[in-house]
Amino acid sequence: MKAAIIVAGGSGTRMNSPTPKQFLPLQGIPVLMHSLTSFYRFDPSIRLVLALPEHLFDAWQELQNKYGTSIPHKLIPGGETRFHSVYNCLQHLDKEELVAIHDGARPLLSQDLIHRLYTTAENEGSAVPVVPVDESMRVLERSSNKPVDRSLFRIVQTPQVFLTSLLQQAYSQPYSPFFTDDATVFESIGKPIHLVEGDPANIKITHPVDLMIAEALLSAGI
Fold it and tell me: Per-residue pLDDT tens for 34-73?
C-alpha cells in the first residue's frame, strides 16, 4: 500500500503575494493541485494526506469547488514547523505502508521520479532524490572563505519515500532545529539514506521567477 503526505504550509511572503504560494495559479490551476494530481495519476488507490494551515481549510475547499477537483485526500492541520506537520499526518497512516513526503510547492513531479522512489524505498527502506550541483561553491570559514569540490555535494529534493513504520519511529523523537527535511529525521535513528537520481525540473516554487520557470517548463511539455 502506498501513501503520500503533501506538506503545504508555505505563505506568499517571498513571492510578494497575499495569496499563499501553494494556491497561486500555474497554467490556470493552483500549484498544490498539480502536486496532488501527480500522485493520483501514478496510483489512483494511493492514500493522500494533505497538511495545510487550519485557517486555509475553507479557502482550499473553495478552490476545489471552483476547479472541480475530486481527488480523495485527508486534510490535516499543519503544525508549528514542517516536522510537526509531518508528525500530525503520520498518525493517520498504517505501519505497513510506503509513504512519500512531498512539498506542495513542487508541482512538476514526474511519473518516472515517483516510480523510481517508491521502487527503491520498497527494496531499501528509504529513497531520497538528489541532483548534482551545477555551479561553483565556496564555504565560509569565520572571516574567510574557500572553494569546495562541488562533485561531493548534491541538492536534495522531495518527495522522499520511506517505510512508514520506520519513519513513524523517527518522528516519535523530540523536534530538533537540525531536522531540515525527512531524511535528516530518518537518519537520526541510525537508518541509512538511499539516494536516487532526482529531476532538475522538479523545482520548488519559492520566488516569483520560479513560477515563471515552471510555466515555461509546462508549456514545453517537460
Answer: 999 999 999 999 999 999 999 999 999 999 999 988 899 9
Cα separations in angstroms, 72 against 47, 58, 64, 205: 8, 17, 11, 24
Q: Quote the strand ranges of the chain, DSSP E.
A: 2-7, 25-26, 29-30, 47-52, 74-77, 98-103, 126-132, 138-141, 144-147, 154-156, 160-163, 195-197
**Cα distance between residue 186 and residue 171, in whole Å:** 8
Cβ atoms of residues 53 and 82 within 8 Å: no
Pairing of strands 74-77, 138-141: unpaired
**Sequence-distant (≥ 6) Cβ neighbours of residue 113 within 8 angstroms:** 129, 198, 199, 202
Distance CA 212, CA 208 (A): 7
Give the Cα separation of 38 and 149 in Å (integer): 35
Q: Which three cell numbers stand for residue 218?
A: 509546462
Helix, strand and coil percent figures for the chain, each rounded to 5? 35, 25, 40
Say if residues 107 and 31 touch (Cβ distance below 8 Å): yes
The Cα–Cα gap between 185 and 178 comes to: 9
Question: Cα separation of 207 and 162, whole Å?
Answer: 29
**pLDDT confidence tier of residue 15, bands split at 50, 70 and 90:** low
